[in-house]
Write a structure and sequence with these properties.
This protein has 309 residues and is α/β, with parallel strands linked by helices. Helix content is 33%, strand content 29%. Helix 3 (96-106) crosses helix 4 and helix 3 (96-106) packs parallel to helix 5. The protein is elongated. The structure holds adenosine-5'-triphosphate (ATP) and magnesium ion. Adenosine-5'-triphosphate (ATP) binds at residues 15, 17, 19, 21, 39, 41-47, 86.
């Protein structure tokens, strides 16, 4: 019995147009984990998720779900997963209960079982009152919940959500967070992709950051946040900059001609930063410390490298 809910080895995806969306990804998610997959637009998050449920065919590599190789027994692997794709993909003219119950049917539940189970998950997601409505009349947040209800109908051990809270208001987002936490506490493994860093920070135990089809960081949240121990200084310059500057080991973000932001690991002594600035003859009239957390790390890891030196 594998201790991984998900094992991805050297996973590559080259789309037909030649685009290499995944460049040999390696990832493992322990059973029972709450795992966050972060990355900018186009990083390959949805591609990775689609491969797990065979919506996209991989080019190369191995995927095991609870130890089951998807090339060897896809139906068994698929049964363990509930997926909430990024885009709504139900028939909007179908009724809510029907959408969820039909899905249960795919997993071999009898009509009665499917209906019971669908009613149960709709209650859980506070959609029960809407069960006889066509999906098209639901609000965006309700549609999102419908997608989640449908993913849960066969009681999968592993729930995968591709940006579950995109376009969901703050209150509902919090409710969803609580619900996902509850599912996780009940033993379900959860993988979610998100653009909301605070979401990953508040929910996830492990976080992977991908960029351009590659994993650039994969750690438990604590270590990731420790990595995050960066300092960002905002400098108001005495004289406008005439050209772009670069400082070794420091990421320089030019806000405008007279304002720059310097981000560097907190362990680098301030005196060293001052020396670097001096060497480039950059003098400033004020300096502020900008608080930074996951967001900073995310930007640091996902921006293309600038030349240092
Ligand atoms: N069907 C396709 N054919 C060709 N290229 C594709 C296809 N689907 C995705 N891509 C490309 O693969 C790369 C990864 O896309 P993907 O949708 O996996 O990114 P993502 O991380 O989910 O982004 P987002 O945060 O915007 O949802 C992108 O460059 C995208 O343009
Ligand atoms: Mg996506």
């Amino acid at each position: 019995m594998s201790s991984w809910a998900l094992e991805v080895r050297n996973l590559r995806k080259v789309y037909e147009n030649g685009r290499e969306a995944l460049k040999g990804i390696n990832l493992t998610i322990p059973i029972g984990d709450f795992f966050g997959l972060l990355g900018p637009n186009g990083a390959g998050k949805s591609t990775l998720i689609s491969i797990l449920v065979s919506l996209t065919r991989k080019t190369e590599g191995k995927v095991r779900i609870f130890g089951v190789d998807i090339d060897e027994d896809f139906p068994l692997a698929r049964k363990k997963i509930g997926i909430v794709p990024q885009e709504f993909n139900f028939n909007i003219f179908e009724k809510v209960l029907q959408i969820v119950a039909n899905q249960a049917g795919y997993y071999g539940l009898s009509y009665r079982q499917a209906k019971e189970r669908a009613e149960y998950v709709l209650q859980e997601l506070q959609l029960y009152e809407k069960r006889h409505e066509q999906a098209r009349v639901l609000s965006g947040g309700m549609k999102r919940r419908l997608m989640i209800a449908r993913a849960l109908v066969h009681d999968p051990a592993f729930l995968i959500l591709d940006e579950p809270t995109a376009g969901v208001d703050l209150e509902l987002r919090r409710q969803l967070w609580h619900y996902l936490e509850k599912l996780n506490a009940q033993g379900k493994t959860i993988l979610l992709t998100t653009h909301y860093l605070e979401e990953a920070e508040s929910l996830c135990r492990h976080i992977a950051i991908i960029r351009d089809g590659e994993v650039v960081a994969c750690k438990d949240k604590k270590s990731l946040l420790a990595m995050l121990d960066t300092t960002t200084l905002v400098l108001e310059l005495e004289r406008p900059l005439k050209r772009q500057i670069s400082l070794p080991g420091v990421s320089v973000n030019q806000i405008d001609a007279e304002t720059i932001e310097l981000t560097f690991p907190s362990r680098v002594p301030m005196s060293k930063i001052m020396k670097l600035l001096e060497r480039k003859q950059i003098s400033f009239c004020s300096v502020k410390n900008k608080t930074n957390r996951l967001e900073e790390l995310f930007l640091m890891l996902t921006q293309k490298e600038e030349s240092h030196g």
